[in-house]
Design brief:
single chain, Rossmann fold, 11 helices, 7 strands
Length: 239
């Protein structure tokens, strides 16, 4: 029997599902998540329906328009992404109402990515008007790193964790990125962005982070991911 590839690759887009030897694009979309069973993490599936907004796709229901998406927006989400991002959007709205001067996002990344993938994501977000706390520009000379990070986390509405091979190497060493991640995991503010690696690799290092649904560049570009984050944190009236 063909095995479903969702536990490794996810079925975040129609092309991803179509490439699965078990699912092959047939039937309705089923979101992928994880449940903690004893000492092992096992896959669990649930039909996502039209969570967070009406389906804008065909009968398969593979795409949806979230309530925070602007009329006429070209940003396309899967039902699973809408389901994962809806509680994050609530956090954005609640924190914006209580503390309107907060930055939009705190970008957690491995030090080795500061001039590569992290800077690329930062620049894409800034180009879309997102206010980002980024260590390369916000960590002043002579300022203790942990104090600056604490301030950045406290003064941002949500946190992004850029999961790369470099981050996977850093996390077991319990460095700065691990401390940032621990703080974000304790809240409902976290969006993992998996880049140049897989959720399977992430589960080997951090099962708790891997259990959080997020975004991935496996089947879309970093620019597409940035567009979704920018729309997620924008405070224009919902449609």
């Amino acid at each position: 029997m063909a095995r479903c590839t969702a536990p490794v690759h996810g079925h975040r887009t129609a092309s991803g599902r179509a490439a699965c030897p078990a699912c092959g694009g047939g039937g309705g979309y089923r979101g992928f998540g994880y449940s903690n069973s004893g000492s092992h993490w096992s896959p669990s599936y649930s039909s996502s329906g039209s969570s967070g907004g009406g389906s804008s796709g065909g009968g398969s229901g593979t795409s949806a328009r979230p309530r925070w998406s602007r009329a006429g927006s070209s940003v396309v989400y899967t039902n699973a992404e809408v389901q994962a991002l809806t509680p994050i959007r609530r956090t954005v709205e609640n924190r914006a109402a209580a503390q309107p001067d907060l930055r939009d996002v705190f970008l957690c990344h491995a030090w080795d990515d500061r001039q590569g993938a992290a800077k690329e994501l930062h620049d894409l977000l800034v180009s879309r008007g997102v206010k980002v706390w980024f260590s390369e520009k916000d960590l002043g000379l002579g300022v203790p790193m942990m104090r600056a990070i604490d301030k950045g986390l406290a003064n941002s509405r949500i946190g992004l964790v850029l999961v790369t091979p470099a981050l996977l190497l850093r996390l077991p060493k319990e460095g700065i990125a691990d401390k940032e991640l621990s703080a974000l995991l304790a809240t409902d503010q976290l969006v993992p962005i998996v880049h140049n690696t897989t959720y399977a690799d992430l589960r080997e290092v951090s099962p708790m982070l891997a259990s959080r649904s997020g975004l991935s560049t496996e089947e879309e570009s970093m620019a597409d991911v940035a567009a979704k984050i920018a729309e997620l944190v924008a405070l224009y009236p919902a449609t």
